[in-house]
Amino acid sequence: MKPRVSAALALTLAFLLYGIPLAMAQSKTVTGAIFTTLSDGSAVNANLYDSKCSVYLDGGPGPHARAGAAGLPDGDYFFQVTDPSGKQLLSTDPVSNRRFTVAKAVIVAYTGVGGPVHPNGVDRDHPELGAITIRVANATCFADFLDSPNNGGAYKVWATPVSAFSGNSANVDNDCGSGCFHGFLPSQSKTDNFKAKIGTATFCLTVQKQFLQPDQTLTAGAQWPITVIDPLGVANTYFTDNTGQVQVCGLAAGTYTVSESVSGTAVMGLNVNGVSVPPDSVYSFTWTAGKPDTLIMFQNVILIVG
User: Fold this and answer.
1) Sign (positive/negative) of CA torsion 162, 179, 72, 84?
2) Which residues of 81-113 are buried (b: 16+ CB within 10 A; e: fewer)?
3) CA distance 214 to 211
4) Sheet holding 99-103, edge to edge
5) Contact partners, residue 73, CB within 8 Å, separation at least 6
6) Are strands 203-212 and 245-251 parallel, antiparallel or unpaired?
7) pLDDT tens across 151-207, in order?
8) What is the pTM (predicted TM-score) of this model?
9) Given its phi and psi angles, is residue 202 left (phi above 0), alpha (psi -120 to 50 degrees) or beta?
């Protein structure tokens, strides 16, 4: 009778004899999916972005999908940006700074350390789960990440479990051998291709409208007029959708003034990028390259007459 070799021993022998990384030999295909999106989780046509600063990473359920659909397994992940082949790394910060956490099949936290932060957005499809998006470029955008060598301006974003990463996360790049890309094993990673234009940095402005009800709950203000005055003094009026939100993307650097109608209401609160500011129906701000996208939330109380 021939002696039987255990699976664990076979893996160890493969590592010793052929130089195959144990993480690669033991890997199992990661379930779920990642995709690129705008800061609020909305899709763009043909995965084409007007700027590298407009590209955000999302995971699990896509736009309008049920919670849990194509969800990543809960845990911690690293991400990176490469050319479409994966051979050239385009991310410029340490791997440790490109880290996020998944819970209940959605991204819930950016946990990177060791470099400029990657701005976050609120995923409009699953806010009840605490879902967020993470900008692929860090706060130095558009210097980070590098321009793709691909003539069509194509990129690939990867995400892999921290436990499957092969290398030193304090480094920007990691040489992990044949079949491994900068510490990321294809069988243990999820990827998505996208295109981004090279040139002037732009941002997305998202405005949310809410009403405080007598029972102290907040409800969405649908079809509410929002006026945006751009740096040239041009005023445009938009209307919120049924979720009480409107988003305008492709805005260039400069000073903007955003105002909302107060007809039949009283101003109750104003929140900008998650921070409360003095309540008002008008808010002005200046955006420059490298700053996160702007999210403004107007909160009002409906006046009761008589």
Assistant:
1) positive
2) bbbbebebbbbbbbbbbbbbebeebbbbebebe
3) 10
4) 48-49, 190-196, 154-161, 75-82, 99-103, 106-110
5) 30, 31, 32, 102, 161
6) antiparallel
7) 888 999 999 999 999 999 999 999 998 899 999 999 999 999 999 887 667 788 999
8) 0.64
9) beta
| Sign of the torsion angle spanned by Cα atoms 247, 250, 252, 253 | positive
How would you write the chain as a 3-class SS string? CCCCCCHHHHHHHHHHHHCCCHHHHHCCCCCCCEEEECCCCCCCHHHEECCHHHCEEEECCCCCCCCCCCCCCCEEEEEEEECCCCCCECCCCCHHHCEEEEECCEEEEECCCCCCCCCEEECCCCHHHCCEEEECCCCCCCCCCCCCCCCCCEEEEEEEEHHHCCCCCCCCCCCCCCCCECCECHHHCEEEEEEECCCCCCEEEEEEEEEECCCCCEEECCCCEEEEECCCCCEEEEECCCCCEEEEEEECCEEEEEEECCCCEEEEEEEECCEEECCCCEEEEEECCCCCCEEEEEEEEECCCC
The rounded distance, in Å, linking the Cα atoms of 298 and 270 is 5
The single-letter code of the amino acid at 218 is L
Q: Domains plus CATH for the chain? A: 7-196 (no CATH), 203-302 (2.60.40.10)
Determine the distance from the C-alpha atom of residue 64 to the mean position of all C-alpha atoms in its chain, rounded to a whole number: 16
Task: Identify the sign of the CA torsion 231, 232, 233, 239.
Answer: negative
pLDDT tens column, 13-37? 444 443 444 444 444 577 888 999 9
Give the pair of three-digit tokens for residue 5. Answer: 């070799």
How many CB atoms are closer than 10 A to CB 10? 11
